[in-house]
């Protein structure tokens, strides 16, 4: 099964199981589809890691690059930005009017898309704040469209870089071995090994099986989790030491196609429950805006 079939089939399954997510999934399915398709158009040189530098990074348990070093295929990202604005205008009622404003402003050169993309890559909060004021659109919405447009380029770079790690020992950290960002989702594979997914570059890496991935606490009384009988494939791990939580999918309990980003946006009810209980989400949520 290819990735697009995986996306289509898991969307159909989740929509049937949780009809209340129908409108959100209609939107995100189009977004993820547009992102997958745009990957085919991207042409970027591979980011090369010098063997010596790679060894130093591994020895010091450092990520391979800083997120600002990811390369972006600007023409493809600009095209995708426009496409995503059209999708939002058709499928996301709460975003549609701002999506139209953004598309028009980008076409009129009221702002530069390159400036937006680089501000996200370089974490330039003040530039994003200025854009938000200029366009009179909330920063998180601008970041959503901007990040979603560059995500395929970032993913391609992280796939290239992952090849440098393939013959290296797993560090099993709570941060991405490629770019150092935090995970926004976890999953247990068929063998019960725990993997994390980077919130920024979508790299997946093996981590410790037990204990909090954020603060490493392993005390049984501090490590809680909840799940519901109707959705046995999901579990939320809560840490009473650092008060953070992470959602996880257990693939041993799931007999259907798996598309990680989709699981994340169709389990917002679990985030709400964890946040209500006083736990915080650590991985930044660049992937989703609450609709
Ligand atoms: Zn990463
Ligand atoms: Zn913790």
pLDDT averaged residue by residue: 93
| Class inferred from helices and paired strands | alpha/beta
Please tally the helical runs, counting DSSP H or I stretches of 4 or more residues: 10
Largest sheet report: 7 strands, mixed
Spans of at least 5 consecutive residues whose pLDDT stays below 50 are: none
Helicity range of the residues? Answer: 40-55%
Radius of gyration from CA coordinates: 19 Å
> Ends: how far apart?
30 Å
How many distinct domains?
2
Work out the strand percent: 5-15%
Q: SSE string, helix = H, strand = E?
A: HHHHHHHHEEEEEEHHE
Shape: globular
Got a strand count? 7
Distinct compounds present: zinc ion
Please describe the structure with a list of short key phrases separated by commas or semicolons:
about 290 residues, alpha/beta, seven-stranded mixed beta sheet, 10 helices, binds zinc ion
Topology, please?
Layout: H1 3-17, H2 22-39, H3 51-59, H4 74-91, H5 93-107, H6 113-121, H7 125-135, H8 139-165, E1 183-188, E2 194-198, E3 204-206, E4 223-228, E5 231-239, E6 244-250, H9 260-265, H10 268-276, E7 280-281
Parallel strand pairs: 1-6, 6-7
Antiparallel strand pairs: 1-2, 2-3, 4-5, 5-6
Bound molecules: zinc ion (2 copies).
One zinc ion is lined by residues 212, 214-215, 217, 239, 241-242, 244.
């Amino acid at each position: 099964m290819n990735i697009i079939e995986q996306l289509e089939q898991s969307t159909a399954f989740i929509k049937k199981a949780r009809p209340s997510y129908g409108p959100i999934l209609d939107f995100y399915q189009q977004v993820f589809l547009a992102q997958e398709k745009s990957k085919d158009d991207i042409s970027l040189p591979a980011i090369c890691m010098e063997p010596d530098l790679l060894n130093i990074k591994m020895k010091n348990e450092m990520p391979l690059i800083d997120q600002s070093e990811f390369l972006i295929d600007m023409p493809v990202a600009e095209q995708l930005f426009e496409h995503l604005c059209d999708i939002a205008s058709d499928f996301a009622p709460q975003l549609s009017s701002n999506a139209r404003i953004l598309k028009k402003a980008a076409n009129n050169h009221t702002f530069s898309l390159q400036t937006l993309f680089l501000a996200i890559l370089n974490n330039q909060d003040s530039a994003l704040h200025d854009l938000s004021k200029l366009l009179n659109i909330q920063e998180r919405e601008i970041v959503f469209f901007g990040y979603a447009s560059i995500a395929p380029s970032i993913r391609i770079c992280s796939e290239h870089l992952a090849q440098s790690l393939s013959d290296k020992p797993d560090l099993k950290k709570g941060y991405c071995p490629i770019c150092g960002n935090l995970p926004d989702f976890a999953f247990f594979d068929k063998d019960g090994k725990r993997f994390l997914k980077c919130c920024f570059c979508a790299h997946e890496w093996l981590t410790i099986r037990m204990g909090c991935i954020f603060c490493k606490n392993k005390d049984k009384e501090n490590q809680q989790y909840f799940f519901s009988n109707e959705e046995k494939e999901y579990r939320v791990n809560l840490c009473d030491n650092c008060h953070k939580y992470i959602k996880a999918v257990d693939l041993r309990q799931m007999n259907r196609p798996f598309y990680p980003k989709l699981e994340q946006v169709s389990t917002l009810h679990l985030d709400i429950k964890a946040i209500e209980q006083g736990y915080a989400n650590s991985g930044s949520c660049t992937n989703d805006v609450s609709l």
